[in-house]
Sequence to fold (840 residues):
Amino acid sequence: MQVTTPWQAVGDPIWWRRTLALGIGLLAAALAGSALVSWVAANWPQMGPQARLTLVQGVLALAVVLAAGLAWRGSRWAGVLTGVAALATGALLALVGQIYQTGADRWQLFLLWAALVTPWLLLARTVFLALLWAVLLNLALWLAVDQGVSFGPWAWLIDSPARDGLWLLGLNGGLLVLAECASRFLRDPWHLTCRGLAVAVLGWAFYVVAMPSLEFRDQFLAPGFFLGLASVAILYVVYGHGRRDLAVAALSLLTGIGQVGALWIQMLDSLDGVLGLAVLLLVLTWLAVRHLLHLRQAALMAGSSSAASASASPSGPIGDDDPDGAAAQDTPPWYLAVLRIGALIPVLLLLGVWVVASFELDSAVDALAAGVLLMCPGLLMDRLARRDVWREIGGVLAVLGLLLCVGSVAFLMDQEADRLSRLLILVAAGGLVYVCSRRFSVRLMAAILVLGAGFWLTSPDVFYFGGDADAQGVGASHLAWRLWVFLAAGSGLWVWSLRAVRRRLWAPLAWALMAMAAGVALLLAQSMPVSVWEWPWFGQLAMVLCALLPGLLLAAWMAVARPALPIGLRTGVPLAVCIAGLGWVGMPAWSVALVWLVLGRLSGGRVLQVLAVPLGLTGLLLYGLDAQAGISLLDKAMTLGLTAVWLIGVAGVLAVHRRSGSGSRPTERGRWLPIGVMAGGVLVLGLAQAQVHRYETILSQGRPVVLALAPVDPRSLMQGDYMALDYAVRKATEDWLHGQGSGKASVLAEGGGWLLLRPDAQGIWQLQGVETAQPPASSSETVALAFRWRDNRPDFGAASWFFPEGQGERFAGARYGVLRVADDGTALLAGLLDAGQQPL
Fold:
């Protein structure tokens, strides 16, 4: 069952309990995970290596057991916990590498992680696991190419311009084909996996065309250049005329316009070239928009439900006007706005540079006059022209004129001038463009320019209060009030614009306010000098209001449900969310993300819901990383944990009432999912334990080798709870290879080799030679130490030494490192020695 009409929500208590239980449960899971991470980070310095391993292994095992149990019961939460287990797998692999300092290639770590996640992906088939798997493969390939790993007959790509982009373009293209073939097996109703991979393909296609054009102008016609162009063309044909996802087709057209612009830039040699490029991009944008509208109209007329739902899904108050009048709906889809704005931003910048440089606009009066002269004719063209091409040009001229006016008021006018007068000029110019234009893209850019410039003009009141005032949170309090104004006004306008008769006028301003709220929230999250509860009262009030807003919006939404919901449900759940809001008062980005989720769910706006996820995760990350005065990691863990426990209780009550009231049975349990989840967990834990056993065997039975430490950059010597190490034998190896031309070439071809070491009279092992073929077993006088060639130097691991927090001075006197070397040349760092070769 779906909410089809904004604010006319269904009054089915079962639907509400199911939806709220799932949403609140996911919020609780995110907060609980953050609380766990904060608690572990607070206690990490006091934990030994084995305690750390045991903790991470325990988290992984618990997630696997819970996921398997929920999968047996047919719960959709099994997929969530499987994703947690996948993340814990990466943490376990990284921890093993950190503790034992094996020097293993990072790309191998990510590739192994992806391989271990694969069974869970095949069984759970969730979007998160699919995207995580794709990201891991991208990281593995990128690191391998950056390291210069040989790829056999395809090695010619390594020497090509933008070589990393070529490999990643091919990888993501293959993953996209695989995802399309398996689309009916993935639980991905919004097609996020395919669209995400398509965006990756388009991004790397732009990179492989733009990078050679800008940096390697004599090689821009390399094979990768044509591969980039062909990739964009193929995606456009497939998704514009084949599988009918017009959102991807629009992004393909935008990428193609960007590629043309990148090719033109290398030919710029005068201001006339800048103007020509701007005109070319404008014409291509108009043609792309017109063509896309015809494709959409054809899909609607043909009754293609897949194209209509995927490309013109209900997205709330977002859209643009239809210059052709071809669309059957009042509000065209979001991807048209993205296409127009994404292409018009560089057009405006190019035209701005051309106007300023050609007419020498170096004063506020000149810039303001030029802005008015451009803005007024542009608005007339936008309003009165009959052909859409002239309306498009008129919109560009109007925004360009407004941009000049904003630059004049915000930057060129005397900073001592009356601020109120400058704001009035800004509002008048922006309001004129906003009211007179009919285009969503023009109105959105006008609103963002005016709001951003207005925020900039009032910024001295926010950031320059002096040391004592700022230490008390005065500046942050003023910033919090601006956040509340943006967020509350944006929410109100979003709701107001849900009706079709108001959407065209107010929707762009609502989106601009939401964007400003997100920007201010991220800025505020990084500029909190003290805890929120130590701010002045007005700052605390603003942050509390922002935290309560999601619950208040939820209450208003549930109040208008028809037939009316039970009073306990429509009042109890919003009240519980408001109480939980006290736990995220210090996380402004999280509050904004929750407002976006509620509003997106209210209006059916998938775009807003999708954007809310990364914003919320970023807010949690900033809260954990921000070292606020008076808020320890343990305090953060307690706050997050208590909030999560409260929300888990609320979700549990909703779930219990739903089952007792509906009489429905759990979903059909998968036969192989519980077994596969458990088998994958056993595989991960078994592999990690086997690695640990092997490394512990090397540390206990390996040949002890004492190497002299070499000086390192003092700025990188101490890094929190570890110190960077270097060895004199590395420098000796580099000198030896420089003197052996053929030997170095052989090492480069093999990617590594073995260092032959022998002890001197003091027991310090010195270099005797370098071999690329594995030498015979070590004798009593020699040891073969395996190394890899990385970053133009030999690397055998043991590059850092971790120590408990606060004991850095104790290890600062280290002069030697003790390595344990296995028979195959693998070396692990076992300890450090002082100048007298005594253990530290």
Observations:
- The first helix runs from residue 13 to 43.
